[in-house]
Structures
1.
Amino acid sequence: MILKVNNLKKHYGDVKAVDGISFSVKKGEIFGILGPNGAGKTTTLECIEGLQHHDEGDIEIFEKKMTVNDDFFKERMGIQLQESSLPPRMKVWEALDLFSSFYNKNVDWRELLVKLQLEDKKNNYFSSLSGGQKQRVFVALAMVNDPEVLFLDEITTGLDPMARRQMWNVMKTIKYAGKTVVMSTHYMEEAEYLCDRVMIIDKGKVIADGTPGELIDRMGMKNRVIIESEEKIDVEIFKTIKSVLDISVEKGKIEIEGKDTSVLADIARIINDRKIKANIQYKTANLEDVYLHLTDHFNEEVI
Ligand SMILES: Nc1ncnc2c1ncn2[C@@H]1O[C@H](COP(=O)(O)OP(=O)(O)O)[C@@H](O)[C@H]1O
Ligand SMILES: [Mg+2]
């Protein structure tokens, strides 16, 4: 384990921003911290990064107890903050050159620019970059000291889908280079695609953790079949199928939940036998279903 956090607590007055969080991160993995706004993601990250004093609990990183403002840790970690900015008239290469001067150990920032697809932006002013390019500059700045662990706080928030996917590629490249990444995100699709393990937090507490696959399995809603048809289908015809757990109808769509994948074949057979013209879709649960279920965020938004 490259990072171990045990019973971390950080309060701001009455607000329990982080209220007893424990987790650990293995070397070389991408670990995701997920949760709604105000859940405590940034505070957790800032405590681990040594930017904030925590009130209680232990943080051990690189097998050493974390202490705030210690060069031992600063030299070995890369940090991108949720709210970052650079002077608008600073050129990309100037920023990299400046940040490199803060550390004893450096990588050649020209190589970083190539890796982060920013080579042709070297002489651009920071203010002239797109959102995605700016975020990639912040990743580059976090990597000038060739860190072992990289912390990224909502690095893709606000980016368009193309820029987001470009960032995902960058992060995969970072992982393949053997780095450990601890990231926070709002996007479940992103977490599912990138993260080896995730922890969902809400109101300063961990509400679930594991690999995305484990969390989805635990939800036990793996097999869903959606049937759409212009014909009126009597849902009674599906009740004979043994593996059916639940049938619901919403906005003309029939949704059937089955115990296993056999439910799909059984439904298809019934529809085929009766010569019903229908569109059948098979869906598995994803991390977003898990997240919405656990955080109740969905309900809040509907109300
Ligand atoms: N500097 C601060 N002073 C007071 N309260 C804060 C401060 N920073 C964060 N908080 C509060 O702590 C909680 C967790 O915030 P934060 O860690 O930023 O959550 P997230 O990053 O998950 O959105 C929120 O209720 C937030 O309002
Ligand atoms: Mg935050």
Note: The first helix runs from residue 41 to 48.
2.
Amino acid sequence: MPSDLEGRAIVVTGSGRGIGEAIARGLAADGALLTIADIDEGNASTVAEGIRATGGKAIAVRVDVTNRDSVKAMIAATVKAHGKLDVIFNNAGIAQTKPFLAITEQDWRRVMDTNGLGVLICMQEAIKQMIAQGRGGKVVNTASIAGKQGYEPLAHYSASKFGVVALTQAAARAFGAQKINVNAICPGVVATDMWKLIDKGFKDEGLTSRDNEAFETFSAGILLGRPSAADDLCGVSRFLASSASDYMTGQSLVVDGGMVLV
Ligand SMILES: NC(=O)c1ccc[n+]([C@@H]2O[C@H](COP(=O)([O-])OP(=O)(O)OC[C@H]3O[C@@H](n4cnc5c(N)ncnc54)[C@H](O)[C@@H]3O)[C@@H](O)[C@H]2O)c1
């Protein structure tokens, strides 16, 4: 089915690699005008160059989503390059494997800062721009299956992702009248660098004894029989960025191959 993403100005945070990169490449292939935003400027530039090399349109921006001035600059760079902001994917996030009783105040603040505060700031600054434009818009947050169930030893990560679901619902209620749709995606076990870090954390904490064991254990019961690739999130992203989802808001869609059935 053809999408109507041609010419839509879309920011994807955390798109220097992983799920964000896959989402951004997919949207660019449909003709959207991308802002590849990441704290890793080198990765963001490589992704943007790759999109341009295949005929797509993309700029790269360094952003730290926890810093409001940095986020404002990302929105301003988008409007300067593409003339407007239609959609933002608040996808940047970090994870940490730590047994429940070992999580420190510093761990909690670090994870909450990026996954909670970072999403809040990006939502606020993007929505202000969309309201100023007066034509509505779409906000898509990356939550997780860990935003639907609390996982040990990822308690603080899970709490941050429940927070993303809550921000999604609250903003949907706040901005429906301005025709701003706010939804979230909840991926499952996705083979990215983040899962390599989570898997290493299990091993370092003595919870598993070999590389990839946690990844395999978590993936074992997936109904569709395999863990997720980042590209598995492209279909739902395209749907949530396009007019096909115009009558949907406040929802957090689980796209996990069948792990959490809600
Ligand atoms: N991998 C999974 O299994 C999985 C499952 C569910 C949800 N998620 C969520 O999906 C999103 C993407 O995860 P991924 O697996 O692609 O991870 P990843 O670590 O491969 O990529 C995350 C990207 O975010 C960027 N980033 C981190 N902190 C940032 C900051 N302060 N400002 C700007 N950019 C920042 C990183 O540089 C990196 O490029 C995250 O929100 C993650 O929590 C991942």
Note: The chain has one domain: 9-188+229-255.
